[in-house]
Amino acid sequence: MKKLLSLLLFVGLTGCAGVEIKPPPCPGTRSYDVQLCRGEKIYSIPNPPYAALQAKAKCDACIDIDQNCVWGIPPQCKPQWKWQ
User: Fold this and answer.
1) Integer CA distances (angstroms), 9 to 1, 6, 13, 16, 43, in order
2) In 18-61, which ranges are continuous DSSP H helix?
3) Which of 13, 25, 58, 83 could cross-link to 63 by cystine, CB 3.0-4.6 Å?
4) What distance in Å separates the CA atoms of residue 48 and residue 46, rounded to the nearest whole number?
5) pTM of this prediction?
6) Residue 2: inside a domain, yes or no?
7) Tens-of-pLDDT digits for all 84 residues of the chain?
8) Residue 13: inside a domain, yes or no?
């Protein structure tokens, strides 16, 4: 019985020691936001060359309108009704 209790105590202590305790997020932010108050930095990956031209061409071809038509839906992609 002593061996079982000492084994459970050992497992419990080593399990608790392995848990990383994170500090709370910066005020007004969520846990997955960039934590500027802790010194995290914002970095952005630049767009590949000609990305805007490719998106415009896809938009004009009515391909994936939600992603590519950031300037508005072109007239050829708008739904046409029978009575128009």
Assistant:
1) 12, 5, 6, 11, 45
2) 51-60
3) 58
4) 6
5) 0.43
6) no
7) 878 888 888 777 776 666 677 778 889 888 888 888 888 898 888 888 999 999 999 999 999 988 888 888 888 888 877 775
8) no
Could you tell me the two tokens for 57?
């061409």
The closest alpha carbon to 69, from 55, 48, 49, 82, belongs to 55
Q: 56 near 64, Cβ under 8 Å?
A: no
Q: Is residue 58 assigned to a domain?
A: yes
CB 25 within 8 A of CB 33: yes
CA distances, 26 to each of 20, 21, 41, 42 (Å):
18, 15, 14, 15
In this structure, what token pair is assigned to residue 70?
Answer: 């950031």
Residue corresponding to tokens 């805007």: 52
Q: For the chain, give the longest Cα–Cα distance.
A: 87
72: tokens are 């508005």
Whether 28 maps to a domain, the answer reads no
